[in-house]
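Let's practice the habit of predicting before peeking. Look at the sequence and jot down your guess about where helices and strands might fall. Then scroll down.
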Amino acid sequence: MTQKFPALFLYFITAIFVLNILQAATTELIFDEAYYWYYASDLAWGYFDHPPMVAFLISLGSSFLEGELGIRLLSCFMGVGTMMILWLLIDDPKKKDYIPHFFILLLSMTLVHAYGFLVLPDTPLLFFTALFLLIYKQFIKAPSLLISLLLGVVMAALMYSKYHAFLVIFFVLLSNLKLLKNKFAWLAVLVSLLCYLPHFLWLYDNDFVSIKYHLFERPNRPYEFFDFSLGYFLNLLAIFGLCFPWIYHALLKSRGKDGFNKALLFLSYGILLFFFLSSFQRRVQTQWIIVICIPMAVLTYQFLLHNANTRKWIVRLGLANIAILFFLRIGLVYEPLFPVVYETHGNKTWVGKITSQIGDIPVVFENSYRMAPMFAYYSGNPSYSLNNVWYRENQYSIDESEENMRGKKVLYVSKYMKAGDMSFTMPDSTLFYGVYMTPFESYRKLKTTVNFTSEEINGSTLSFLVYNPYSFDVPIQKLKFGLCLLDRYKQVIKIVPIEALPKDRSQKSIAPLASEEFTCKRPNMSLENVGYIKIVISENGLRWGLNGEKLKVD
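Done guessing? Here is the structure:
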């Protein structure tokens, strides 16, 4: 062990691991972690927003330990594991003389701290990216059957972590097109596809819901230079903190002296270019580009080993960065130190306010796949996110959580109500009201399909189909229909109520696993600035649902 990892390295890595364990145990969950904990409560080969790796990690860790630490346990191991792999990626013998510089560089990277203990899809993404590069480095030196098998398994693990992993594999391949003629490379691809087959089957069984959402259904808005493109560049600075000038300088000065360094450069520049182009279409989130930390950490450390000026400034600015980040890490636990109210503050408090008033009654949250799992985790009560047309679909839209609420007395919670049977305030001062509903009945999984073309939308009569995916009849009298008008960015403009009747007037309900055709008179409406239309449903007086497949208006 000490041959590859000197004693001083092991002291540093042990201290970091202990720190992350303490942080994981004492910090309340953030909303995304609670959502992924909800994933893990029902293990599957896929979920609405992400592949299943994060759920597997939470489930495995929770089988060893309870509470927040159990949920985050595997992230703590992966966090230090990523650092150890990065050390192995560097061959320069001078690295043993600059061990503190290695850790200062890594710990100056903002999100490396977060993904060292928070359990998010990016944590395994970083770990398996580093591991993929380590195995690839061996592969290009001496490809073999064993290395090919390992490479294939790790590529699958990458893709099970996050769909963005495809970019990692693609840009590494692009750096070495000779791989297209390499039988061992094709074997690795075959192994990865076989390992990934369960997720492909899950996507097929769920109508490719994840792919449709990420590529086609995600709402957007008009291009804004300051929020889109300028925001992208600010994200590039935020990832590396005060060290950003020297890290990007190291990238610009680095050269592809061999196949591995060429792969690091292709991966770094490829990710940067891809999301720069993406910034002209939508706002790029910081975590989307976090994977560049892996190749750029290696390139920067290799550069500073032979550049005293860069080494000096990385230490100076890196220590300042680390001081700020450690201060903020303490603030995650001790709220008064944090400059703003953050997600780790007060979750137990607001959950306690609700349960103290309602006991063990299930809670339905309007438009909040974030609050629903957080409440369920800290209360132990069943919860559900009822999503409507002004929100987006999520895991609650496709799983069986709706059935856990059906027919029961529930507390319906919304920030859009002006009064209710109870109220509570979130740590950010947002006021929520709750009203009791008995019995609760929603049919959010009803699907509508327009039965006319964009050319026929101006006709006097419109028709559409409603598909009932449930195992029971859905009474038509409990349904109201609306024509939803959206702009070209898929944002709701308005909803026009329509009086729709089944084509067969004798029908009183929609049969299980069957479709019913409805017709209505075309409402008096303007289609100016309308990009899409769809039919939406309000059941039992609930707000309009996310029911319809969109029709593009020419």
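How did you do? The first helix runs from residue 7 to 26.
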